[in-house]
Amino acid sequence: MAIKRPAKRKTCYFCENNKEPDYKNYEELRQFMTERARIKARRQTNLCNKHQKKLALQIKRARQLALLPYVVV
């Protein structure tokens, strides 16, 4: 019988670095978007719920200011 090890807990990028998502730092926000400029799911980004919601809000704010694209054709 195989011994099960506890899964390594994935930590939130923003909690780990003691940062908050900010629309002015759009280069950092790009890593949480797909090639087609869609916001990645929480399972893919490994963010906590609090920071995923803030991230989505900041990406949408950056899109309105034309810092990030809505779609890539």
Describe, in plain words, how this protein is organized in 3D.
Helices cover 40% and strands 0% of the residues. The chain has helices at residues 13-16, 26-30, 42-45, 49-64. The mean pLDDT is 93. One of its GO terms (biological process) is translation. One of its GO terms (molecular function) is small ribosomal subunit rRNA binding. Part of the 30S ribosomal subunit. Forms a tight heterodimer with protein bS6. Keywords: Ribonucleoprotein, Ribosomal protein, RNA-binding, rRNA-binding.
Annotation keywords:
mainly alpha, about 70 residues
Q: What number is the mean pLDDT?
A: 93
CATH level-four homologous superfamily name: Ribosomal protein S18
The H/E string reads HHHH
Low-confidence residue ranges:
none
Number of strands: 0
Largest sheet: none
Q: Whole-number radius of gyration?
A: 15 Å
Fold-level CATH name: 30s Ribosomal Protein S18
* Number of discrete domains: 1
Q: Which percent range describes the beta-strand content? A: under 5%
The proportion of residues forming helix, as a percent range, comes to 25-40%
* Number of H/I helices: 4
Structural class: mainly alpha
Amino-to-carboxy terminus distance: 52 Å
Second-tier CATH architecture: Irregular
Instruction: Please identify the top-level CATH class.
Output: Few Secondary Structures
Basic shape = elongated
Topology of helices and strands:
Blueprint: H1 13-16, H2 26-30, H3 42-45, H4 49-64
